[in-house]
Amino acid sequence: MGILNLTPDSFSGDGVYKDVGRAVEEAERIAAEGADFIDVGGESTRPGAAPVDEAEEIARVVPVVERVAKRLRVPISIDTRKAAVAEQALAAGAAIVNDITGLEGDGRMLDVVTRYNATVIIMHIKGEPRTMQEAPVYSDVIEEIAERLGWLVRRAEQAGVKKENIIIDPGIGFGKTFEHNLEILNNLSRLKALGKPILVGPSRKSFIGNILGTEPKQRIFGTAAAATLAIKNGADIVRVHDVREMKQVAMVVDAIVRSGETVNV
């Protein structure tokens, strides 16, 4: 999943802001580099980020989604926690809603995604972006994430979201300490018990910077290492900034991992 940031304050410094033409070109580049999905976002959810007005977020993302949907066959994901933004993006051609609140932050979100029969990415978050990194505490981070995601999945299914339309995300960096992020990657396979495809988003994140002492754009190799471990431990999708490089990582790791599986002919 390639990331298309339409924000002026992306933590990774890769935002494409206010220029629809440039954003469409960036989407075309992401697709050409091998992305299976393009995740379009108009609100930064980095630690400490302030919320974006609904109208502003719609103005940022909908024109881009509409043009990209007409030009590319790659499925578009809308990264939003607002039902109105999701609704307009889906009407413009998006097929997936990636909601950091697990479809819980906006009371209308479940109705929107079920009406559009959208695929959904249900993410785990502790707190909200502005305060989520203020000393998050867990007794067992993996167990608590699994329990919470399980509850959110059941809630979505009971509201009418199709079982096959649900992807889960443990939310690396969203209300987790450095140690929590490492523990999640090491124990990702425990989330397989939920029976859903797993998406992981380690790309350029601060836990990698803490290890390497580098700025976001210098974290490609660190991201590759994290993505490798995530795929080895059960991730089905990795959400990344550096699509060309991570596509190669994913293809090689996937081939190695699958070579050890029993194939029934």
Describe the structure.
The protein has a 6-stranded parallel β-sheet, with helices on one face. Strands 7-8 form a two-stranded parallel ribbon. With about 260 residues, it is an alpha/beta fold. Helix content is about 45%, strand content about 10%. It is globular and about 40 Å long. Helix 1 crosses helix 2 and helix 8 runs parallel beside helix 9. It has a single domain, classed as TIM Barrel. The model has no long low-confidence stretch (mean pLDDT about 90).
Would you summarize the structure shown here?
The protein has helices at 20-32, 54-71, 83-92, 109-115, 141-159, 178-186, 206-212, 220-232, 243-259, and strands at residues 2-5, 38-41, 76-79, 96-99, 119-123, 166-169, 199-200, 237-238.
Total helix count?
Answer: 9
CATH topology: TIM Barrel
The SSE string, one letter per element, is EHEHEHEHEHEHEHHEH
**Helicity level:** 40-55%
- Total beta strand runs: 8
CATH class descriptor name: Alpha Beta
Going by CATH, the homologous superfamily would be Dihydropteroate synthase-like
Q: Can you give keywords for this protein?
A:
six-stranded parallel sheet; 9 helices; alpha/beta; TIM Barrel; 265 residues
List the helices and strands and how they pair.
Blueprint: E1 2-5, H1 20-32, E2 38-41, H2 54-71, E3 76-79, H3 83-92, E4 96-99, H4 109-115, E5 119-123, H5 141-159, E6 166-169, H6 178-186, E7 199-200, H7 206-212, H8 220-232, E8 237-238, H9 243-259
Parallel strand pairs: 1-2, 2-3, 3-4, 4-5, 5-6, 7-8
Helix pairs in contact: 1-2, 2-3, 3-4, 8-9
